[in-house]
Amino acid sequence: MLQINEFLSLIDSFIGGAVWFPYALLGTGLFFTIYLKFPQVRFFRHALRIVSGKFDRKDLPGDTSHFQALSTALSGTVGTGNIAGVAFAVHLGGPAALFWMLVTAALGMCTKFVEVSLSHKYRNKLDDGTMAGGPMYYMKNADFKIGGKKVNLKWLATIFAVATVLSSFGTGSLPQINSISSTMLSTFGVNQMLTGAVLAICLGLVIIGGIKRIAAVTSKLVPGMAIVYFIGAFAVIFFNIENIIPSFVSIFSDIFTGTAATGGFIGANLAFAFNRGVNRGLFSNEAGQGSAPIAHASAKANEPLSEGMVAILEPFIDTIIICLVTGLVLLSSGVWSEKHNNQFEYAEIEILNDSYKESNPDNSKTIYDHLNGIKALPVYTGALNVVDGKIQNEDITFLHSRSFAENVMVYKNEGLLTDEVFTGSVEIVNGTVTDSKPLKFIGESLVHSAPLTAIAFNRGFFGDYGQYIVSIGLLLFAFSTAISWSYYGDRAMTFLFGSKSVIYYRIVYVIAFFFAAFQDTTIIWTLSGITIALMTIPNLIGIIWLRKDMKQTIKEYGEFFEKTFPGEKHPKF
Predict the structure, then answer these.
(1) What is the per-residue pLDDT across 284-341, written as a single tens digit (0 to 9) for each?
(2) Sign of torsion, CA 485 489 494 498?
(3) CB 51 within 8 A of CB 310
């Protein structure tokens, strides 16, 4: 697993984790915001009127209402990114990462407006009567030109469709069930394999009914899960009300410098906070990724821009509201910078070749430079000498989850009802545990992802019962995401291989969903970063190329609206 994670991290470092990726994402959103004169602001109120059904007509082509399409798309974006992803971003980049998540959402509102409008404009009606759309269809059907000559982008559509199938696993299936099973294990003690098996069966029963059953489920699930989550979140926020203003200050005070060390948090520089905040922001709202347009393509509408306006609401609800609330829970409760007793994941253990003390400011600065990629330190290769579970080596520094690990104990990991301490040697190569003996390390360190959010929810009016709200919320959020992404994947399979391939895709999707319940969290997060990038890059190229088409589409909608709804108030198109 360690070798796989290292290989995936290497790939991710050139695409999703590369310096240029967040700039490309934000740059596209900023370009369209200026080019189209801030449509996310101008059309926001009109979008609310559309999704309320004010302009709906029964005779329009499509499979779902605007609200159902929005619910399906939201169920695809409101998932582990809102619970686990926010905690992961704050863990990596500190409170400053939250600011960059919000910036990503504000610009992402415009990006999503564009990609959904274009995808809806060039959607296809299939032989079975259902609608199919998404970036692969505008890449195939739109007129792309260079120097007045038409360019065939079917090859790019194929790349996007393949990436969508991969991303349905890397974003929609694998990380969702992994976060659910991890939280169910830590909260209720439920076996991860059992969680995966039960939910895999439920998933199969839903997705076999296609878009209409998916839309029917998500349109009821999304509002319900939001209510449950907000009750728990505000119970923590109001319990720690005296920390709300300092929490807001911490989000905005270090945006251009990075977050300084505090508590067990070593600190993060600007580049790290910016990159992780934008990356997790995209994982949360998926603006620019091209996934949500696939759901919106099913909506009943004659004019593509109306559905594009509905899509403006997605990043606002998903990131600006839900992710900000989660961030305030983490910051106001203070758990993000505290060390907690936990079982260490091998992929996040790093053992350095010298002894550094957290209490020594110079040593802390040295570790800060190491963790933020400024100056790497030599790592340890050799044996850990362990007696009665305690590590005897004095010339090493044990890091876990980007923090100094404390009170580390080594136990035999043999599935016994009670933990038995280990005595012997543990093989370490290049700072990582490579020993084949079944061992587990338990100690105090920073925690991230869903377990951190669960700890934070215990710091409210509900006390220790707060973690159950996270478990229920995560189950609903993540399960609904897996439902929606199965639809994205089956539309991509239909585009690539025809409708007969969908049944085989669904079988593999459900099986992978089950196995991901008990795989390493870090590997799955790394994989999701790669698949996000593989979808995003072709989509950004396509929508920028069709910028003039988009501006013309806005003009056409204005003419259509004034003709169809004379006398109705509307923004300037």
Answers:
(1) 777 888 988 998 888 887 788 888 998 999 889 888 898 899 999 999 999 999 999 9
(2) negative
(3) yes
Per this entry, what is the length of the chain? Answer: 573
Q: Which of 491, 377, 443 is nearest to 126 (CA)?
A: 491
- Is 3 a residue whose pLDDT tops 80? no
Q: State how far Cα 23 lies from the chain centre.
A: 18
Instruction: Count CA within 13 A, CB hemisphere, residue 403.
Output: 28
102: how many CB neighbours lie within 10 A of its CB?
Answer: 19
| Helices and strands of the chain, counted as H and E runs | 24, 14
Alpha-carbon distance 526 to 536, whole Å? 16
pLDDT in tens, 420-472: 999 999 999 999 999 999 999 999 999 988 788 889 999 999 998 888 887 78
* Residue whose structure tokens are 């505090």: 262
Contact indicator for 143, 514 with CB cutoff of 8 Å = no
d(CA 47, CA 306): 8
User: Do residues 75 and 249 lie in contact, with contact meaning Cβ atoms separated by under 8 Å?
Assistant: no
3-state secondary structure of 552: helix
* Alpha-carbon gap, residue 72 to 442, rounded angstroms: 40
278 close to 16: Cβ distance less than 8 angstroms: no
Q: CA 18, CA 24: separation in Å to the nearest integer?
A: 11
- Cα 4 to Cα 12: distance, rounded to the nearest angstrom: 12
Q: How many CB atoms are closer than 10 A to CB 557?
A: 21
Residue listed under structure tokens 């945006």: 255
**Taking the CB of residue 238, how many other CB atoms lie within 10 A of it?**
12
pLDDT at 185 (0 to 100): 82
Alpha carbons within 13 angstroms on the beta-carbon side of residue 268 total: 26
CB 439 within 8 A of CB 416: no
Distance CA(221)–CA(565), nearest Å, equals 33
CA–CA dist 234, 83 (Å, integer): 14
444 bridge partner residues: 341, 406
